[in-house]
Amino acid sequence: MKKQIIIKHIGYVFLFNGIFLFISFLISFFLKESSVLPLLFSSFLCGIFGIFPLIFVERTENLSYEEGLIIVVFGWITTCLIGILPYIMWGGEFTIANAWFESVSGFTTTGSTILNNIEALPKGLLFWRSSTHWIGGIGIILFVLLILPQARGNRISIYNTEISSLSKLNFRVKTKKIAQILAIVYLSLTVAQTTLLMVFGMNFFDAINHSFATIATGGFSTKNLSIAAYKSLNIEVIIMIFMVLSGIHFGLLYGTFTGSRENIFRSPLVRTFILVLLIGIVLVSLKLYYSGYFNWWESVRYASFQVISVGTTTGFATIDTANWPIFTQMVLIYFTIQCAMAGSTSGGLKFDRIYIFFRSLAKQMKVLKHPFGIFSTKINGKKIDEKLEEQTIVFIALYIVIFFISSTLLTFMDIDGMTAFSASITTIGNVGPGFGGVSSLGNFANLPDLAKYLLSINMLLGRLEIFTILALFTIKK
Questions:
Q1: Any idea where the domains of the chain sit in the sequence?
Q2: Concatenated DSSP letters for 55-101?
Q3: What is the DSSP secondary structure assignment for residue 163, as one 8-state letter?
Q4: How many angstroms separate the first and last alpha carbons of the chain?
Q5: How far is CA 103 from the centre of its chain?
Q6: Alpha carbon distances (Å) from 271 to 169, 250, 268, 331, 337
Q7: Residue 165: is its pLDDT beyond 70?
Q8: Is the dihedral of CA 351, 339, 134, 73 positive or negative?
Q9: I need a labelling partner for 473 at 20 to 30 A (CA). Which of 8, 206, 207, 308 fits?
Q10: What is the DSSP letter of 7?
Q11: Does the pLDDT value for residue 150 go beyond 70?
Q12: How far apart are CA 136 and CA 150, in angstroms?
């Protein structure tokens, strides 16, 4: 195990975070805010810890898979630890537990918050908070891959642990090219959404912050009432469009705009994903309308935004769903479990696994009918490796077990059933809002500190993929 080279790569993580901390400092400095010193000190510290390993640690050749795994996992943990510094130093609502929860929620693009008054934060700190989404959305490690001045084998080792097998299905290019594709799509979507939000009335600061949160499928807003604060249908429609785009495999988005055969229009996964979202919108709209909550167009408007927001794991809100009919809440809980597509910025279970599960189920039904037949599971005409099918089933089972354990532990802390259930599933799915005490316009501030640490673990498991964490325990000294 080459510890020095692991430290060197973690140094890149420090430097990348330091850049955004310094930009946040500049915002606070020019606006003469109270967060100047916390952000300056944090960016300086990141610079020191980032530069030293680059200067004093020699270059190496190929990394092993184990070393790549450690870099990915500890890169994420280090990033979350970096994130708490400006929060704790600034103070306010940020205790150690709250700062850790907010940092992990930001970088894992969960979007759950402990803040009762978001608008009380200085703009520099608000920008850092949104930046944690944007950094975590595409993966801090993938950003590092773009600038990594190391051997090709290093990129492959890190890439193989940062990107799941499901995400690789729609990529047919080399590792470096994949990182470039992801970055191009990510930046393009961010610029496009920021521009459109400004055209329809948002100021530049709010537009860039909400674009960071949307493209990362995160959900942090600069407003206490989230998107509801703007009372603008145009803004809601723009955000809905970009939430859907950000929930689709980036390789397919890239292929669509470059004229490749691998595009969103030819993908059965994308068609099914969109169809399921539409079914969810129709079901919720009908229930809201016939239960007398809103007129028909209001029902469609609110249902569309909330289903898409939860179904893409973004977590923005235009209304508080805590008092909606239980049927609509159950539909939203389903989307909290399903999540968006692999290869997007979404975390959690992933729609692709649900899709593969049902295709595998259909195959098993054929086997029962024709015991001696030979059948395979295919997506877009391509056969799915049976090992990937097995991994999918095991992953879903582990996901359910972890969700059940965390829910049970929360109820042991005297948290009510609905809050415990939805808090567990929304954090491991990296979605953000739940129901009960953690509803769409609520927060996690009133939960015990121990619950916040437990839910932070859920967020990391959802973001890093369960197998990545478990693989750490297979590494031999």
A1: 1-162, 351-472
A2: HHSPP-SPPPHHHHHHHHHHHHHHHHHHHHHHHHHH-TT--HHHHHH
A3: S
A4: 7
A5: 13
A6: 16, 15, 5, 19, 19
A7: no
A8: negative
A9: 8
A10: H
A11: no
A12: 22
pLDDT of residue 8: 80
H-helix segments, 370-465:
386-412, 417-428, 449-464
- Euclidean distance between CA atoms 351 and 338, whole angstroms: 5
Check if the beta carbon of residue 455 is closer than 8 Å to that of residue 423: yes
Phi-psi region of 313 (alpha: psi -120 to 50; beta: other; left: phi over 0): left
Q: Identify the DSSP state of 378.
A: E
Number of C-alpha atoms within 13 angstroms, CB side, residue 118? 24
Average pLDDT over residues 406-428: 95
| Res. 444 pLDDT band, cuts 50 70 90 | very high
Query: Which residues is 61 bridged to in the sheet?
Result: none
Q: Look at the block and give the residue holding tokens 């077990």.
A: 401
Bridge partners of 383? 378
Contact 211, 238 (CB under 8 A): no
Concatenating the DSSP letter of every residue in 423-436 gives: HHHHHHTT----SG
CB burial of residue 311 (10 Å; 0-12, 13-18, 19+): buried
Decide: helix, strand or coil at residue 139: coil
pLDDT average, residue stretch 367-381: 79
> What pLDDT was estimated at residue 140?
53
Average pLDDT in the chain: 87
* Cα distance between residue 217 and residue 227, in whole Å: 14
Among 432, 433, 365, which Cα is nearest to 105's? 432
Sign (positive or negative) of CA dihedral 354, 359, 360, 365? positive
pLDDT for 117-144, tens place per residue?
999 999 999 999 999 999 998 765 465 4
Give the tens place of pLDDT for each residue, 455-474: 999 999 988 888 778 877 77
Which pLDDT score is estimated for 12? 83
Strands, DSSP E only, in 233-354?
none
Predicted local confidence at residue 410, as pLDDT: 97
Q: Rounded to 10 degrees, what is the CA torsion of 369, 371, 374, 375?
A: 40
Q: 275 pLDDT exceeds 80?
A: yes
